[in-house]
Amino acid sequence: MGLLLEDYLKGQGKTLEQLKKEHLVSNIYKIDNKNLFTKRNYFQYYSYKIGIIDKNFTLFNPTKKITVDVLIWTQNCKIPLEKVTQLYDFKLLIIDSSNSTYVNDKLVDACGLLKLECWSVLNDGAFGIDLWTFNLLLTTKWIHL
């Protein structure tokens, strides 16, 4: 059973407006979980690591590749996938539905050429995973992470 943020804050004698911006992932949720680490476009929940590639992502020179379980491509990022694979090692690329059909199709084709696993929300439907067992949920396509 979940507890709404407003109800939680009310019980603490606070309002949503009183939350400091550095504690917000968005304008809706507050992070208060020692098992969730976030920094810019990187999230880690226990040992599950997620990278985000969005329209504000900039290329950088890593000393070694960043290893994540999944990389989420969002907001029609214009950087070629080939360049991103020089920065990240990942098991699965998730192409979310904020991308245009053109960007989605281009990424799916690039994954095929690069022999990378990908999940297109536009083509395959919603993505779900059980973070305890790493089993995909509610899917019609099986991917072994």
Keywords:
alpha/beta; six-stranded mixed sheet; two-stranded antiparallel ribbon
Task: Reconstruct the topology from this structure.
Blueprint: H1 5-11, E1 36-39, E2 42-45, E3 48-53, E4 66-73, H2 81-84, E5 88-95, H3 101-114, E6 118-120, H4 121-124, E7 129-130, E8 135-136
Parallel strand pairs: 3-4, 4-5, 5-6
Antiparallel strand pairs: 1-2, 2-3, 7-8
Approximate strand percentage: 25-35%
Q: Which structural class is indicated by helix and strand composition?
A: alpha/beta
- Percentage of residues in helical conformation: 10-25%
> What is the N-to-C succession of helices and strands?
HEEEEHEHEHEE
Q: Low-confidence segments, ≥5 residues, pLDDT <50?
A: 20-28
Give the terminus-to-terminus CA distance: 28 Å
- Widest β-sheet, arrangement of strands: 1-2-3-4-5-6
Instruction: Assign an overall shape.
Output: globular
What's the total helix number?
A: 4
Report what the structure shows.
This protein has two domains: 32 residues, no CATH class; 95 residues. The chain is built from four helices and eight strands. The chain has 145 residues and is an alpha/beta fold.
In short, what is this structure?
With 145 residues, this protein is α/β, with parallel strands linked by helices. It has helices at residues 5-11, 81-84, 101-114, 121-124, and strands at 36-39, 42-45, 48-53, 66-73, 88-95, 118-120, 129-130, 135-136.
